[in-house]
Amino acid sequence: MTNLTRRSLMASPVLAALPLAAKKLKSFGAQLYTLRSIINEKPVETLKTLEAQGYAEAEVVRGNMDKIWGALRQTKLKPVSLHIDTNYFFKDIDKLNPALDDAKAKGFSWVVCPYIAPQDRGGVEVIKRLADTLNKTGERARAAGLGLCYHNHAFEFEPVAGTGDRLLDVLMKNTDAKLVGLEFDIMWSQVGGVPPVEVFAKYQGRIPLVHLKNVTKMAPQYNERVPREAFQSVGTGVIEIAPVLKAAMAAGAKHFFVEQDQTPGNPLDSLKQSAEYLKQLNF
Q1: CB atoms within 10 A of CB 76
Q2: CB under 8 Å to 101, separation ≥6 — which residues?
Q3: Between β-strands 29-31 and 255-258, what pairing exists: parallel, antiparallel or unpaired?
Q4: What is the dihedral of CA 48, 263, 192, 126, to 10 degrees?
């Protein structure tokens, strides 16, 4: 048989027509907020169980970090991102720089603005002011050697009348891509009526962090008043996860955290279910 060079193999129309090898998610983490009902009482046991389930990274909430930090260091879970109290961005700004320095010292790479309370939300002008605040915070974070992300919920997907935009688009247009990224929560995008793959396609290069979770079918809404039973583990619900991961990778996403705001029982059981699904999933 004639020897074939690598170049001739790659040029073969038959081989070119073959599908690319399926991918698996090499590494994923957990947002420890999911474990808030049990982690403070049994931090070492809880985090070691999480590690045994296959999680490699952790996203931590600063509010209880002191209670679980020693336990986290007893595992191989890598602290990647830290949710900081929203007040540090707006009211208690004198606490922001020390919090950033502490996050860097502890080995975090990212800090996140996690939530805007309903009473602080509003239309385009409110979102523009939020963008200005995030740009300023992004400069502080960069000076501390960290990246900054904003975490969405459902309200950011409310349409802006007469523009074709949603509030999230206003936020992204008015934040500096070099200073502010998006921690994209795919479930809340679905709740807001926007398929997650569309957001990845629109904001390539701006979504370093991803929250993986799922939800039952429901009509679009722009608030977080979702029934407890609507929250689903990653492998169940209406969101097809394989296309989401494919779109996320194409958009340059770096870290994936499983989060389930509400669980039917022990949150470790739900996280295990999500981990088992992700470990076997090809995309």
Answers
A1: 11
A2: 144
A3: parallel
A4: -70
What confidence tens digit (pLDDT) does each residue in 147-202 have?
Answer: 999 999 999 999 999 999 999 999 999 999 999 999 999 999 999 999 999 999 99
Q: Which two tokens stand for residue 83?
A: 């949710």
Please list, residue by residue across 16-48, b when 16 or more beta carbons sit within 10 angstroms of its beta carbon and e when fewer do: eeeeeeeeebeebbbbbbbbeeebeeebeebbb
Cβ–Cβ < 8 Å for 92, 85: yes
Helix (H, G, I), strand (E, B) or coil at 28: coil
What is the SS3 assignment for 163?
coil
Residue with tokens 């509400």: 262
Q: Kind and range of the H or E element at 43?
A: helix 43-52
The token pair at 143 is 């000076």
Amino acid identity at 4: L
Cα–Cα dist 272/263, whole Å: 12
At 133, which helix (H) or strand (E)?
helix 124-143
Q: What is the C-alpha to C-alpha distance for residues 213 and 107, in angstroms, rounded to an integer?
A: 26
Neighbours of 4 (CB within 10 A): 11
pTM greater than the 0.85 cutoff: yes
State both tokens at 227.
């029934």
The first and second tokens of residue 138, run together, are 């992004």
CB within 8 Å of 89: residues ≥ 6 apart: 96, 113, 133, 134, 137
In this structure, the strands spanning 57-61 and 78-83 are: parallel
Domains, the chain:
24-280 (3.20.20.150)
